[in-house]
Amino acid sequence: MKKQILILHPKASCVIRRISTRSSRHYSQPQPRAKSAPEQLVGVVGLEIHAQIQSNTKLFSGSSVRFSAPPNSLVSFFDASLPGTLPVLNRRCVEAAVMTGLALNCTINRKSLFDRKHYFYADLPAGYQITQQRRPIAVDGMLTYSLLGGKKRNQVMRKNVHIKQIQLEQDSGKSLHDDLRSQTLIDLNRAGVGLMELVMEPDMSCGEEAAAAVRELQLILQALGTCQGNMSEGQLRVDANVSVHRPDEPLGIRTEVKNINSVRYLARAIDYEIRRQIDVLQRGGRVQNETRAYDSKTGETVPMRDKEGLQDYRFMPEPNLPPLIVYEDNTSLPTGSDACQAVVVQKIREGLPELPSVKRDRLVQTYGILPEHSFTLVNEDGLVEYFEAVLKATKREPRKVIGWVTNSLLGHLKQHDMSVSQSPVSPPALAELLELQETGHISSSVAKQVFQEMWRSSGKTASQIIHELDLGLVSDMAQLHSICQKVVDSNPDEVHAIRNGNKKVLNKLIGLVQKETKGRADTVLVRTILLEKTS
Is 0.90 topped by the overall pTM? Predict the structure, then answer.
């Protein structure tokens, strides 16, 4: 199956998927009003998220799952839909769905069903997708997410979004379009990979809330190990259902923005679509029930197709798969059954790891840091572990360490587009630097300078850099008194202002002393000496 399948005609359209985000609530067309009325319109956002299950093999076949493998090199007879092949359910995928449902406070259906959803799609060889339309594996959940608010955007606000359902289903293959030759190449490596479709109710009102919810879900899935959540590799794909309405009125006609693969683009796409719909209504038009795509270059959504007269998917029970049964605990297993072959909810519940929200609360309670700092730590992959590793190697207070981690370290990582694991400054190296500052070997300004050198000169310790550049604190008191006297003599106006009660001017003199010493003077000691000389 390593030979590519060649389709000589362009693919007619994109996949049409079932819209299950409480679509009955999106039905009314808000009536145009006076020009002042549109400001009363608010956005309503629901999400459908397809999360690729982290598994070694596909949902119904033994084919391996690996990103960027050679085209059509991971395709079994079942994936290619050859006659006579039958699906065999991957237990790992079921366990991943149950674990995700538990983490999202869902009700786990002890009995769920598989269905066939029929449609023609060039990279769906069977002509149907195996999904869970009638009875999904998990329902009625809740995701609590956090976002920063307030005037200074330093207040952590918590919000909830209801999870309607989580269902297991197959992914399709990939279509690679060659416009030059007017043909489409089909890669079936992804065909049959296990997906969890998570349907979020329309409980959000803007792009920022939707992006925060998706980011929180991404962190939860990564903590669980049920999905790697790498959006750039298509492991997490988002469809946004967007409408506008006036509060206390029925929801408006919605549009669906398909296949968004970036949290940042998700926020932009939703906010643009809300503004567009409000503008349409303000001009007396009507919002069309259609599918749209987000163009990241223009920052706009563009029409793909309308939703009128959608094809009948002809849902039917999957005849080759029996009902999926999961058990609450070992006592509920049928007599004589092998517990190792069953999916036991209680066992999965006991194995749940620390979730992001719990981790944030623990960080605040354990280390006394601000909630917004815990928000930053948890949202960056590996930053909590880095922070705690620094604390283990230094005696400095957590509140003093947090600034270095969330400002200096994270700032450099963002600037160079690097992950925490790629940092050239290790936790022990940063801890050594902070210890040298705490014990009075260097000033705070020199500590920042040394950090810059450590970033540029990977492998060099703080002590080595301080020695090579002679950055240690000035220990000669006579020399320090002499420098302070020189600054006082050179700035008679400032000295006069200080003697007249303007103590703020003293900071200028301290800065001049630090300039003379290249930041190597103890600020507290310099302040004491200058106060004596200007009194």
Answer: no
